[in-house]
Amino acid sequence: MQISKIVIAIDGYSACGKSTTAREVARILGYRYIDSGAMYRAVTLYFLNQHISLTNPKEIDRALQQINISFKINARNSTETFLNGLCVEEEIRDMRISDQVSPVSAIKAVREAMVAQQRKLGKEKGIVMDGRDIGTVVFPEAELKIFMSADTNVRAFRRQKELMEKNILINLDEVIENIRKRDQIDTTRTESPLRKAPDAIELDTTYITIEEQVDEVVRLAIARKVTPS
Ligand code: DC
Predict the structure, then answer these.
(1) Is the dihedral angle over the CA atoms 110, 116, 120, 121 positive or is it negative?
(2) Distance between CA 177 and CA 182 in Å, rounded?
(3) How far from the centroid of its chain's Cα atoms is residue 177's Cα?
(4) End-to-end CA separation in angstroms for the chain
């Protein structure tokens, strides 16, 4: 028997616990974790700061050439996102970005640039990547694909709690509204809409804990990691 490294793609709706699950699964398996949503958030931050018009393709192309996104592991062993050498991990999580990221990530040129980078990061395998199109577009050959969903109110409640832990106080209705709007844009956009890949395994996280989500994905990964030589 031979143990080989695989690619694990975790897609699904906003605030289902994809990132938390993916990060923990990567830690347990000794894999690299890549948060593809952070890349779209970093692009959105750049576009907002530079006042890039979302309807001007030339401006967008020029801006994309100026953007360098990288990830580093900090002293607490968690991944931080860098935009042109500056840590933007906290800034990309606030509502200013959450409100604008779906329209930015619906732009074809933005997606092409990000997908190319994501594929490079996954070349060596041994990676867990979460997002919206990882199992359908970025790594259609991924050995394990998970598609996560959960009740909207439960997702909003969890997201609100997460923001509160970072001292960001926000009304629950506002979080529900943001999640609904993002789901709507993410599932109906022309470019790589959020879809379950036919071979993805569905995981409804409404009534399960993060620990249970992680255990399930690790179990599935281990089952696929062992391939007969
Ligand atoms: O995972 P997240 O909520 O941080 O992602 C932020 C946004 O980025 C999400 O609303 C849609 C977009 N996104 C995407 O279009 N494709 C991905 N692979 C990941 C995220």
Answers:
(1) positive
(2) 9
(3) 20
(4) 5
Chain segment 54-90, per-residue pLDDT in tens:
999 999 999 999 999 999 989 888 889 999 999 999 9
Q: CA-CA distance, 218 to 4, in Å (whole number)?
A: 15
Q: Which among 19, 71, 79, 101 is the best mutation to test ligand 1's pocket, defined by most ligand atoms within 8 Å of the CB?
A: 101
**From CA 90, how far away is CA 166, in angstroms rounded?**
9
Spatial separation of the C-alpha atoms in residues 115 and 137, rounded to whole Å: 8
Residues with CB under 6 A from ligand 1: 14, 36-37, 40-41, 101-102, 105, 131-134, 182, 186
What is the model's pTM?
0.92
Domains defined for the chain, CATH in brackets: 7-219 (3.40.50.300)
